[in-house]
Amino acid sequence: MENIVSIESREQHFDPGPTIIGNSPPLQSVLADVDRVASTDSTVLILGETGTGKELIARAIHVGSRRRNRPFIRLNCAAIPFDLLESELFGHEKGAFTGAVAQKIGRFEMADRGTLFLDEIGDLPLALQPKLLRVLQEQEFERLGSGRTHQINVRLVAATHRDLAEKVVRNEFRSDLYYRLNVFPVTLPPLRERRQDISTLVFHFVEIFSRRMGKVIHCVPPETLAAFVAYPWPGNVRELQNMIERAVILSNEGVLPNPLPQLKGQAHCPVPLSTFRDSERAVIEQALRETGCVIGGPSGAAARLGLKRTTLIAKMKKLGISRPGPERSAAMFSHAEATPWWSPHAKRDYGTA
Ligand SMILES: Nc1ncnc2c1ncn2[C@@H]1O[C@H](COP(=O)(O)OP(=O)(O)OP(=O)(O)O)[C@@H](O)[C@H]1O
Ligand SMILES: [Mg+2]
Fold first, then answer.
1. Which of 2, 48, 92, 227 could serve as a FRET partner for 321 with CA atoms 20 to 30 Å apart?
2. In the predicted model, is pLDDT for residue 319 greater than 90?
3. C-alpha 251 to ligand 2 mean position (Å)
4. Which atom of ligand 1 is nearest the CA belonging to 18?
């Protein structure tokens, strides 16, 4: 059950939420929508290809809401056999059906005053769709085998990689439920439509996996990075993440090999050597240049790189990047900073990078 249902109580720890990397305009527009809708109680429908980060966004919506200290309950509608799905959603009383040996609380009850994330909603069987519609409209339901009506207060976030509108046309999805879910759609762009996020994601995952595996990666050959940026990524960020994990496992002497099939064998470090630190430094310096050295705030370098302001400052310290002084960059400082880099007022952060 672990892979299909995760229940997290937010009552004990402050949860900074998931780390969402990327600063391309399409992703930033999604994050702006997340900001707008998170604090409301409205239903959100997250659409997008597999691996684009739909679950990450669902968690960000929960963490950005007033319900953040209440449970975030996830149920994958595609991973549970039809017979069990109804009781997973609504619970059952002892003896409600053969095999119901004890009372069971459903996901709606568990999510009371919190958020219920129904993943793969496009795979919800037609027979269950009117029941879901009723709970969403009335905020009430009965456990299987019970006549007692339970009132709940649940915020629904649903996701699917399927084209729900097309499923409605094919009579595979009820139009009334579709309209009820489609209050605030958020569509995640595929990675091939936001290629400028790829380098930052590569550095992010290299850092995670090398730390996890206790390996040091000091060189990402430029042609490897270029191949990553050019690849179409049908499996999106998940595929990139897995590819980097494989590359870190395969790495020798700190050089990240190119695990993509078409360029295999070319993963050597050319001379002059471009190290991982160099590439990371170049990306940060470019962001600083483009933002006039503003680090914090919505248009600062940290936001541009999809990093926390404090994370960027720590990286700059590690890489020995100092903000240029006024004598070196009068032009850069010709306009006032929106948010000084030392200010505690920072951009929206969904997590620690
Ligand atoms: N912008 C991002 N920054 C960092 N990690 C990301 C980003 N987008 C996705 N990921 C990572 O990629 C993986 C896939 O993301 P997620 O599970 O949210 O995708 P999904 O859209 O729900 O995919 P599926 O439709 O297959 O369920 C996760 O490990 C997630 O942490
Ligand atoms: Mg998912």
1. 227
2. no
3. 29
4. 31
